[in-house]
Design goal:
D-Maltodextrin-Binding Protein, domain 2, Dipeptide-binding Protein, domain 1, 17 helices
């Protein structure tokens, strides 16, 4: 049932004991497109959890608005050899539990990301051999082989440092009450309702923090997000769907912040993950290619997103120097799709059970895919699911086709290896091709951009034939906010960084 956030805000005031005026002045209310999954940077997987982590857990490195890697918990770094990275840490940094953030905490956190059961960071940093404590404020990371994308991996969850004391005490339940070294500390979480953080007085960069509290509130329905933003029930919506952009721009109390995104939308296919892969779609790449040919990506984006997103056939943004210009979206060709199905010898219609996230725009996407593919001989049956639950099910192999997204990484390895390598922890469909594995590994060892781009071009030639993932469109970051919010700096990774953000009375 839809709920208005004005009521939720009133509940929050009652539970926190803040007066309305004080809460309005000091609490920033952020609407998320869905609820976050587990608040453990080692085990988390969703985009919106990364937004929460931006306030909760600092990283060794961050990205600035030019997508340059800049130190955060690190003070400086140097590659002393192609496989040895020495990082100097900021002094006098403490975790939310008062424990010191030092070289041992960094060693502990990185090895936890690498070795913990169920870690989604493992394939991001699996080139790491060991971490050595040089002195209390210096660590040396030793790699098994040179890795061009390794430093970029430390600008996201693989670079988040957790309190060893808290993590050891909580074990698998650490995500219920996470302890990091970010600008805000965890207060409470009510699933599907709110996540509350409050300013951490001992934060190393405390002068950059202007807010006392931040409340993240999941609102999957885009129309409800817009209504609450217009009514003042929230201060900032991390996503405005393109069809709502004109309404935000027309409201003098609101403003839009638009920026290019590293993210993209896909359909993941289950090709080898358990019994649900034993379908015509999962077992025959000709059927998957026929499905792609049945779709008019341009029309899909025009209808659902006012044509604001750009269609794509790869995981590398056109803004990236690694983008492979020759890999372009296919034109719709129903006749060719039918011919491929005939060649595959499958009985028609080909049933495709497709999972879609339970929000209005992606449900509409699913319905349009259903109609388009139906013209070529597919019977698409839709199941709408809460997104974090759908991700967990996909990881277990409980899907055939899944409309999903990735928020994108500045280095293309972060968009490719985990999804397409046979050992990738985000490879839900269990796709495995030795040639693709070898090319992804080779790209990690090459430093120059043209060399890596050529490797990715060769890899895409193979994955276009195998089609374990169907790429649909590149996203844009469309953030709507009250004019009372100031200091927000957009970055293409889409994170809501709270340093410098303030809220006028």
């Amino acid at each position: 049932m839809r709920r208005l956030l004005l009521a939720a805000a009133a509940t929050l005031l009652a539970t926190t004991g803040l007066s309305p005026a004080r809460a309005q002045a000091q609490t920033l209310r952020i609407a998320l497109r869905e609820d976050a999954d587990i608040l453990d940077p080692t085990l988390a997987r969703t985009y919106v959890s990364r937004i929460v982590f931006a306030g909760l857990c600092d990283k060794l490195f961050d990205l600035n608005d030019k997508l340059e890697t800049v130190p955060q918990l690190a003070l400086s770094y140097a590659w002393t050899t192609p496989t040895e990275l020495v990082i100097k840490l900021r002094p006098d940094v403490v975790f939310h539990d008062g424990e010191r953030m030092d070289a041992e905490a960094v060693r502990y956190s990185l090895m936890r990301h690498l070795t913990m059961s169920g870690s989604f960071r493992r394939s991001e940093i699996n080139v790491m051999d060991r971490v050595e404590v040089v002195d209390p404020l210096t660590v040396k990371i030793v790699l098994k082989a040179p890795s061009s994308p390794f430093l970029a991996q430390l600008t996201d969850r693989a670079g988040m440092i957790v309190s060893p004391k808290a993590a050891e005490a909580a074990g698998k339940d650490f995500g219920l009450k996470p302890v990091c070294a970010g600008p805000f500390r965890f207060v409470e979480r009510v699933p599907q309702d709110r996540i509350v953080l409050e300013r951490f007085a001992q934060y190393w960069n405390k002068d950059a923090i202007k807010l006392d509290r931040v409340t993240y509130q999941p609102i999957p329905d885009s129309s409800v997000r817009l209504a609450n933003l217009q009514a003042g029930g929230i201060d900032l919506s991390e996503q405005i769907v393109p069809t709502d952009v004109p309404a935000v721009k027309a409201n003098p109390r609101l403003r839009m912040v638009e920026s290019d995104s590293l993210g993209y939308q896909t359909i993941a296919f289950n090709v080898a993950n358990g019994p649900r892969a034993k379908t015509a779609l999962g077992q025959d790449s000709r059927v998957r290619r026929a499905f792609e040919l049945s779709i008019d990506k341009g029309a899909l984006v025009q209808v659902v997103y006012n044509g604001l997103y750009a269609t794509t056939a790869q995981a590398i943004s056109p803004a990236s120097p690694f983008h492979v210009a020759g890999v372009k979206p296919l034109e719709r060709d129903v006749a060719k799709a039918k011919a491929l199905l005939k060649e595959a010898g499958v009985a028609l219609p080909v049933v495709v059970n497709m999972t879609v996230p339970n929000n209005p725009d992606l449900r509409q996407v699913g319905e349009i895919l259903q109609s388009m593919a139906g013209e070529a001989g597919f019977d698409v049956r839709l199941t709408a699911s809460e997104y974090a639950s759908a991700l967990s099910a996909a990881n277990r192999g409980e899907f055939e086709a899944f409309v999903t997204a990735w928020s994108g990484r500045v280095d293309p390895d972060g968009n490719l290896f985990g999804f397409l390598h046979s050992g990738g922890v985000l490879n839900d469909g269990k796709y495995a091709n030795p040639k693709v594995d070898a090319l992804l590994e080779q790209a990690r060892a090459v430093a120059d951009v043209p060399g890596r781009r050529a490797i990715y071009a060769e890899m895409f030639e193979q994955t276009k034939q195998d089609l374990p993932i169907l790429y649909l469109w590149q996203q844009k970051n469309l953030v709507g906010m009250s004019t009372r919010v100031s200091g927000f700096v957009p970055v293409s990774d889409g994170m809501i960084r709270l340093q410098g953000v303030s809220l006028a009375k």
